[in-house]
Design a protein that fits this description.
Elements lengths: L21 E5 L2 H14 L7 H6 L26 H12 L4 E5 H6 L1 H12 L6 H4 L16 H22 L9
Parallel strand pairs: 1-2
Length: 178
């Protein structure tokens, strides 16, 4: 489905008029931003340290060709505007067609998540033991923790957006510590 955003023409437009359902699983915004930076660095797109890359966000052109403009490898914190994005998706398709989940809660308690997901998409329930696959497409653990002052500054910058997302969607973001 693509990234959870509403930049440019990210919403699929007329494709939203059907009976599709949308599931968004969201990671804590600063951790997500740092993971995005690590991916961009590992793939040779990013050359700046994380703090500088975030500070310069929105000022650098994408190194990707226009056909891959959707990837936006230098959009780190901008993608953490979860309330803004959730509201746009809700306005586009209606709240009843969207399920929002918190990645850290999903990882901590996969069985209730799977039951809720199966109910949401309307499929017969399968037990967790038949579905578990282990790690797939998982990144390596972060080798270097971010400086605490940077984490606090970035979390402070997105706090209002995170709390608005929780109020809008009913998601418990307590696992994120906001």
């Amino acid at each position: 489905m693509g990234q959870f955003s509403v930049e440019n023409s990210d919403l699929p437009g007329s494709d939203l008029n059907g009976n599709q359902q949308f599931v968004f699983i969201l990671r804590e915004p600063v951790a997500r931003a740092h993971s995005n930076w690590r991916w961009s660095t590992r793939n040779g797109l990013e050359t700046l340290p994380f703090a500088e890359a975030v500070a310069r966000e929105g000022t650098r052109p994408s190194p990707l060709p226009p056909s891959q403009d959707y990837a936006r490898p230098f959009d780190y914190m901008r993608r953490g505007r979860y309330a803004t994005f959730a509201q746009a998706w809700i306005n586009a398709v209606g709240r009843d067609r969207i399920a929002f989940h918190i990645l850290e809660a999903v990882l901590a308690h996969p069985e209730p998540f799977v039951r809720n997901l199966q109910d949401f998409i309307g499929i017969p329930p399968l037990p967790w033991t038949e579905l578990t696959t282990g790690r797939i497409n998982a990144g390596d653990p972060d080798p270097a923790a971010l400086p605490q002052d940077l984490v606090l500054r970035l979390r402070s910058a997105v706090r209002a957006e995170v709390l608005a997302f929780a109020a809008l969607t009913g998601c418990d973001v307590g696992v994120w510590g906001y």
